[in-house]
Design goal:
five-stranded mixed β-sheet; 453 residues; four-stranded antiparallel β-sheet; 32% strand; globular; mainly beta; single chain
Length: 453
């Protein structure tokens, strides 16, 4: 993406026996809707070079998401550079793959071609050919992702092997399969159940990529719209467009949109993923949806109350809190500090939230960062009271980060774009150590498992 070096043109998916066995019950990032990547896997190797490699699968040249493992099947989104199917063409679009977890054999694939026709200024997405940048959510026989075309997709987890389930039955047209011998659905094709177009449905202008993972909560799918700047990085064309939408998971009907109007204040775009937590405070339980905004604020939303007549309900912001220290936004003379961009690459100034907030033992942890094309710069890791939004501690010992933290055993881990891996005390914010990875971390986050990170 851009001018920096991609070190994953032949990146494979490596599977260790113990990890597959431990992770078959996991259906979404971290296994729970709080985004915390702390998993119960055991007997993992200390030295990966001595681990047993079961198989390797070639993915696309861009890889921005995690696989989801459920009932012996791995679901992973990638680009279409290595997709092969009779009648299909490579457009720089995306592919959702279903692989056998023990053998790596492809079970089915679903192609989402890059939709560039009609994508004119101010629209500015899909140009990087990043493919599917959403972690798949598995719920029974359904899979949910945010596609690269600004759509929320619901698919049959079995693909076409059990027939073409409706109401959507035009998969060949959606995948743009040409007339000829390949113009027939095969058991190795994916099965699209419904699709919700966020660009047409809620009038958003996604920027760069549609890069978030949806949140499954009860009968809802909650997704980030990736609304952002225009094609020349000048203005936000749709500042009042929603940042979060709520869909009925069974039908794809729009249930609610957020009321925060974050687009009026955002720097660049929205790419964080929403998370859920039930907050226990003073004997009272409260359900909250947390979201890291493109304006650098953490938002706490009430769960929406669907309307009786089926009209779109508001999802109300309960509170918001700045994830930037005050001096990141204004200098000593009270003048606003400039936001870095791909032209200026300023070390100082405010940043947005790109990694997901993480809920852990009554607290929310969130880091700030920017596109790596904006260069290195000052970051901040903040810990907030999940019930009130009060700042419990901050650390500016970290650089800008697009990663999501992991929290467990009283510790918080964060990787940053400047190559630092940091370990903090979850309660006090004291930094215990920093490890220099000698390479920046962008599309990856830490995971705690088996006493290791």
């Amino acid at each position: 993406m851009g001018s920096h070096r991609i070190i994953s043109p032949i990146l494979g998916l490596f599977v260790l026996v113990s990890l597959v066995q431990a992770e078959t019950i996991r259906t979404q990032w971290g296994g729970l809707p709080n985004s915390n990547m702390t998993v119960p896997a055991e007997n993992l190797p200390t030295d990966l070079e001595s681990a047993t490699l079961l198989w390797e699968a070639q993915l696309g040249p861009h890889q921005y998401t995690l696989p989801t493992i459920h009932d012996g099947v791995i679901y992973v989104g990638t680009g279409d550079a290595r997709y092969e199917r009779l009648g299909a063409r490579k457009t720089g679009g995306g592919v959702l793959m279903a692989l056998d977890a023990m053998t790596g054999k492809t079970i089915w694939e679903f192609l989402t071609p890059r939709k560039m026709e009609g994508i004119k200024p101010p629209y500015h997405y899909n140009q990087w050919k990043c493919g599917v940048c959403s972690g798949p959510i598995v719920d029974g026989n359904r899979i949910y992702i945010v596609g690269g075309r600004g759509e929320v997709l619901c698919l049959d987890r079995h693909g076409q092997a059990n027939g073409n389930d409706g109401p959507f039955v035009d998969e060949l047209d959606y995948m743009e399969i040409a007339d000829g011998p390949g113009r027939a659905l095969a058991p190795t094709d994916g099965d699209l159940i419904w699709v919700y177009d966020m660009v047409a449905g809620v009038d958003v202008v996604p920027h760069d990529v549609c890069g978030s993972t949806p949140l499954l909560l009860n009968d809802w799918i909650i997704a980030c719209t990736s609304n952002g700047q225009d094609d020349i990085h000048d203005i936000v064309p749709k500042p009042q467009a929603p940042t979060l939408i709520v869909l009925d998971k069974r039908t794809g009907r729009l249930v609610a949109t957020d009321d925060a109007r974050i687009g009026e204040r955002m720097f660049h775009g929205h790419w964080s993923s929403p998370v859920y937590a039930r907050i226990e405070k003073d004997g009272v339980s409260r359900d909250r949806i947390f979201f890291g905004g493109g304006d650098g604020y953490l938002y706490a939303f009430d769960l929406p109350t669907p309307t009786q007549d089926g009209t779109v309900a508001p999802m109300k912001a309960r509170w918001s809190v700045d994830c930037n220290p005050p001096h990141y936004r204004v200098d000593s003379e009270g003048k606003p500090r400039e936001y870095s961009n791909h032209r200026t690459r300023i070390l100082t100034g405010p940043s947005e939230v790109i990694g997901s907030p993480v809920f852990y033992e009554g607290r929310i942890y969130v880091a700030i960062g920017q596109s790596p094309l904006h260069g290195e710069g000052q970051g901040c890791l903040s810990c907030f009271d999940a019930a009130t939004g009060d700042v419990l501690w901050r650390s500016t010992d970290v650089a800008r980060s697009t990663s999501t933290v992991s929290a467990g055993d009283g510790l918080v881990f964060l990787a940053d774009w400047s190559g630092g891996l940091h370990c903090f005390d979850a309660i006090t914010g004291k930094r215990y150590w920093k490890h220099d990875m000698e390479a920046g971390t962008w599309a990856a986050s830490t995971m705690i498992a088996d006493g290791k990170v």
